[in-house]
Every structure is written in C-alpha cells, then in structure tokens.
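Sanity check. The docking grid for adenosine-5'-tetraphosphate depends on where the pocket ends up, so I'm generating a full predicted complex first rather than guessing from homology. Inputs follow.
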Amino acid sequence: MTKVFSGVKPTGRPHIGNYFGAFTRWASEQDTGHLYCVVDLHAMTVPYDPEELRTRTHELAAWLLATGIDPDRATLFVQSHVREHAEATWILDCVATMGELGRMTQFKDKGGGRDSVSVGLFNYPVLMAADILLYHAEEVPVGADQRQHVELSRDIAQRFNHRFGETFTLPKATFPPAGARIMDLQHPDRKMSKSDESPQGTIDLADDADVTRKKIMRAVTDSGTEVRSGEDKPGVTNLLELLSAATGRTVAELEAELAGARYGDFKKQVAEAVIERLRPVRERYAELAADPHAVADTLAKGAERARQTAAATMADVRARVGISA
Ligand code: AQP
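Predicted complex below; grid placement will be based on this.
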C-alpha cells in the first residue's frame, strides 16, 4: 500500500480549485495508510485573526469529510494537534538552505520582496517538508502550484539521509488528470485562490447553486467564438478544464462535442456539471455543520493516530541528529 500525505491550509473558504485539484482525489483514492491534514500552522504565515483561524480549521475539516474522506479508513487531523510537526521543522531548517527557499515561487509571489513579510512565509516549505516526511509519505496528491514545494521536500529528505543515514522516504507529487490548476474566472491568467480578493472569480464550495451558476455565466471568455483550448484562449481553456474535471471526460472529447456551440450554451453546460458534481458535497456539509462535536471527535481520533507515527519518526530523528531522546 502506498503511503500518502496531503494538506490544505485554512486561509479562507475552500474553492473548486482545491476540490478538483486535491480533495476529490483524496476521497476517491483514500486507503488506510493515507493521511489528510488541515494545516493550520501554515495559515499563520500571513496576517490572520485567531478566532477566525479556529473556526476555519473546523469548517475545512467538515468540508473534507463532506467530500467523502472516511475517517475509519484514512486519517484526518489538524496539524497543530501533533506537536512533532513544529519540532521536525526546526531540525529540517538546519538542513534546508536560504538559497533553495529563496527560489520558491510562492514565496516570491506572496512575499513580493517585502522585508515586512514573516519569516514563517519564507520557511513555509520546510514546515511542509516536515508534514510529509514525518509520515514517510511516498506520494503527495496536490494541485500543480505545489509541485515545487514537494520537490524541495524530496531534496531536503535526500540531504538529511545523506548526512545522518537513511531516515526519510523520498516523496513525489502526483497530479489529477484534469483540474490541476483551475484559474480565476475573472482573471484566467492567475490561479483561483482562497486568499485573493476575487469573489466573482472564485467559486467557493459554500456557494449555492444560483451563485455558482451566475459566476460561471459571467466568467471571462476570449475573443473569437470557438470553444477550444489554447494559449490564446485562457478563459475558454479554464472552463473546458473545469468541465473535464466535473464530468471525467477529456478536454479533447469535450472540444469535439462542443464544436460550433455558442459561448452561452457552453457556459450553461459547465455550470450545470459543476453544480451537479458539488450537490452531494454541499448537502453533506450542511449535515456535518449541524453537528460540530462529531467533527471535533473525529479530529481528536485522527490526531491520536497521526501522533503515533510522528512520534516514532521523531524518536529516530532525535537519535540520528544527536539530541536527547
Ligand atoms: N486553483 C487551483 N487549482 C487546482 N488545485 C489547487 N489547489 C489550490 N488552488 C488550486 C490545491 O489545493 C490544495 C490545498 O491548497 P492549500 O490550501 O494548501 O494552498 P494553496 O495551494 O496556496 O491554495 P490557495 O487556495 O491558493 O490558498 P491561498 O490563497 O491561501 O494561498 C493543494 O494541493 C493545492 O495545490
């Protein structure tokens, strides 16, 4: 059985990019050796409100359960509930280099070269490496934006193993066949994101069917009338990608079927496919939101399970790096 770890940070409301890029695969491929984590420590790297962080962490866990993660099979937990993540980060900080962290595009995008950004934002990929390596994950199912961070985790693991002896498994990122990078509906040149202020360009999982339909109908398209993907058609390409992710059909099949269709009809088809795909998830979320204690119990049990593996890894790591057991 392949060991899998992946996480999502509670920085805002989860959107269909998170869903198609990551969550849907987590649910459909889950197995007993898989761990899925709400990475709340990562959400502290940018300014935030503590009460909101607590609420969003809980809500995000409920969304993951609503997408179909079964806590009796996979382990679902909150990162800060397992203290080993923070401890492992320090040790890996002493293995990672300033140069490699400085090359991370997410840091460049979010930090914008400002001196005032937190050290945590710079250090984010090392915490992510700790998340993955603590559980000896072989695969990390993520959207395309996380490729560079998973590659860095692998480099850090390799360097650690070389310096201190075989300890960590080398992880690799895996990507979905469609939906690996869903773009903002109003700005198809940039990724749909939780924390970007683009309410019309982002479809939250919490949006209802009407709002979802309106946002897709108002999505930016491109000049020309053809429904086809291509670098010169970022808006239509993004909608085709969404339709492909929602229906499981390839973009090529969809292009053939939609030859001659008008943009308006095409968008209607995308909207209905996305709404149908999300309907059971949204219904299940409403049920889970009504029972917050059940979600909290699930997370407590998940943390207990995760802690066993993390503690064993840390005992080994401590012994190898020469600090007290
Ligand atoms: N637009 C996207 N398309 C496909 N996959 C995406 N993911 C994120 N955005 C898209 C994937 O969702 C998982 C969880 O992401 P995250 O919360 O850990 O952080 P992120 O990648 O930085 O996502 P956001 O939504 O853009 O958050 P903010 O705005 O806070 O930075 C990951 O597997 C990610 O690849």
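Relevant for the grid: The chain has twelve helices and five strands.
Also worth noting: Residues 7-9, 11-12, 17-18, 21-22, 142-143, 145-146, 179-182, 191-196 surround adenosine-5'-tetraphosphate (CB under 6 Å).
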